Amino acid sequence: DDDIFSSAFCENSEKLINVHLFALAAKYYSLSNLGVCTPLEDVLEALKGDSEGATGIKPDEFMNNKKSHEVQVMSELVDSIANYCGIKQVIDIGSGKGYLSSFLSMQYNLKVYGIDSSSSNTNGAHERNKKLKKHWRAYQSRGRENRKKQSLENTNDRRVEREINCKTINEELLTNVSHLQNQDQVIIQDLVPSRGSTEMATPETDTETEADLLTGTQSHEAKLSEEVLAFLNVLPADAVEDFSSSHCNCRELSEEEKVQRKMASLKTKARKSNESNLYFPLTSCITAETELNDIITDLEDCMLVGLHTCGDLAANTLRIFTAKPEIKAVCSVGCCYHLLSEQFENQEECHDQVWGFPMCRYLKDKGWCCGRNARMSACLALERVAVGQMLPTESLFYRAVLQVIIEEVYGVTKSDRHVGKTFSKSSSFIDYVRRSLKKLELDDSKVSDSCIMDYYEKYKHRMNELEAFNMLKVVLAPCIEVLILLDRLCYLKEQENIAWSGLVKLFDPVKSPRCYAVIALKNQSCS
Predict the structure, then answer these.
(1) Which whole number is the average pLDDT over 98-121?
(2) Cα separation, 269 vs 170, whole angstroms
(3) CB within 8 Å of 223: residues ≥ 6 apart
């Protein structure tokens, strides 16, 4: 309990004195141990109903391992929620390069609007989507060939099996006949098929096999036509030639044929007048006050999704969901907790600002604050460290010593600028410091190479201490993430128009550390 765990710290100095107890407490308060998550399998089973999932096309040919895993798992869940709610429109908040959006549209035939604040992301997503369509068509064609090949292999297996059975039966008949002939009990001709009748059995078997092949092929062609239809819907209307209208036929058309051609022509024109692409990348900055109608002109009943929405965007996604009657469901996986704005962090009175944390009334009433250091810790990946993917201790040490140099040499304690990924580009600690100073727009002539190395040697013996400190932060990370996620869940529980809400572990945390989704469905009566 709390009293036992509190003894991990010294009552007077408040310093950590029992690391083992500290680790046990952290594990006790992690999401995996608290029992507040709903298993993904249970959610999918509850949403399934009578619908059947789409044929399994994996996105691993189009994305890296991590992204493929995330997109495949999340898209299946999103499609299940959309089917359950009877909606076809999905809005992907913070869509980035459009991995999830394009897969939802192509694989599940959903109409997806991907909204991102970066125009370069949006433009990149648009270009990537165009290229993806070409690969997708080839992918579908290869899938068809594989199914045909499998069908032929199955048919050949059945043919061989029949021939073996037929041969076995004939051998048994001949054995019996030979036995009976020796006894002169019956006439052989009455029992053994003549050579002519034996040969007649083979064409029947072949005919039967061909019929099975035709049936199997038709079944696969039916499935194929559905996939091709779904894929063609993604393409622009003029990407596929309409052979019926271009085919030249000199004979007189019947009235029925004229009507059919007229209808086909009208449909073609309708397709060309409307953009047939089911994925629309849009550029816009989303806030809690965003009116989606201003961005999406044909907004209808839909659901919001977000795959690793950064900072306040995850919180704002939930606020938009609860406020807009058209949005029937939400599935949001947040990330970048260190970018969250906190209402009680600086103790500044900003009554009009919408904060990323806290969201629920309970923590607001408590005036709860995490602080940037705690939120930074929440971004660490305990599961990856547990399987041997250790923390980048050397780069963290470089950054810590740099901080000392900046404070002591330049007198700077706070800056809005960031060093970024300078470590990976640096050949040495001296190179790292000089690159960083330039990024921070500080005069690097103020410090010599020997001075830089003096700082390095002064703190080098404390590198193990730094590593131990960061390992404690890693152990504590799941507890801080719990606080942020439960705050969002409690916010949804406080709303009156929510039929169900929950936390669901979607991803393998080693592949994707930010693996928890906040999911909610509105009451059916809400409109």
Answers:
(1) 88
(2) 64
(3) 55, 147
